[in-house]
Amino acid sequence: MPTPTDWLKYDRDHIWHPYAAVHSDAPLWAVVGAEGAEIELADGRRLIDGMASWWSVIHGYRHPVLDKALKAQVDRFAHVMFGGLTHEPAVRLAQRLLQIVPDSLHHAFFADSGSVAVEVALKMAIQCWDGRGQPQRKAFLTIRNGYHGDTFGAMSVCDPENGMHTLFQGFLPSQYFAPAPPLRNEPDDGSALEAFEQQLQRHGDEIAAVILEPIVQGAGGMRIYRPEYLREVAALCRRYDTLLILDEIATGFGRTGELFGCHHADVEPDIMCVGKALTGGYMTLAATLVSDEVATDICRSDAGALMHGPTFMANPLACSVALASIDLLLAQDWQARVQTMEQQISHGLAPCRDLPIVRDVRVIGSIGVVELTTNELPPGLQESLVAAGVWIRPFRNLVYIMPPYVIRDEQLPVLTGAIFAVLSNLQSTRGDNPP
Ligand SMILES: *Cc1c(COP(=O)(O)O)cnc(C)c1O
Description:
By secondary structure, the protein is an alpha/beta fold. About 35% of the residues lie in helices and about 15% in strands.
């Protein structure tokens, strides 16, 4: 029997991790179990989870209701192709999703990851304009600091500076960018919106759609912006006759305090992407939802159909667990739960504001962000957080949490307390040792 030490060694020698080098000596921890809001390491330590495995595990690990849904579907069938065949899990999931998203959306495309859902959204927009007799509309307008995934179309609309554009220049399609809107707690002189409108004025006849993350920009900077900005953007899309794609992959399913980010601004997109928490973090599934009008025009395009169809489209296991996850969410007072978390996170992170290494602390729904004054992460931060008993994975100059909603009242302060303790410790070590 290989021991966790053996797997770790094999892993180091042969397996890629996200955004990692081979033969890297970056720390890596072996997981042997996970339950509720805890991750169990091979050495027996239990870490309180602040990441919900990148926004997805909203109901915690090993939830009995989700386990049961998955097992029940395994006993029926795990998968069938979706070309020419359909099944109850896909139909019921589509029904449920279309009930809870804005009324503008009427059709669902099930994709196998968030990035693919974004690719499909971009394709839909291009094919829609082809169907409308404007095939020259093939570019996208977005805002800086966005993140939409790691496939090439999605990458092209990620932030051009922190989003790998330089590396893949010459291959990536080039898109139009407007400045990121000011943060919610910064003054707004209206210039970001003006610059956005100028792009539409100048390039409107080439632009197929505007794409952005509503209310919270995630991996591109963990930025929270005002609902008014989103409302204005939606109005400008109408005025300049372009489509609006909202990427709700991170913000969906209650995370920001509303069921979807767009609900903060009462905005109705033409196309919307969901993913991440869709299956409660059990497996990979995403969906691209689209209005009837756009869907109809897509089918008027030369192709006559939407040109996408992944092998594992609408995987029945994933659809079953997604349906169970949404029902579980809606069956509880999730909004009160997320509000309580918001208060606890705000309270727990407030002391960080006084640390000189901290530039900003921002909280919305069950998301807490501490932005550091440094450009990069202080070395050893990840290890210190693990030593403090929490699983938090900072990136760039951001230490942030979005815990499972099932995190217990005595666990959440451990997360926020660990952030404060580790950051203050950095502070004092720095003070003790002049540069
Ligand atoms: C994570 C994320 C994606 C990409 O989803 P994957 O499942 O990782 O491909 C796209 N958009 C947003 C806003 C995300 O947070």
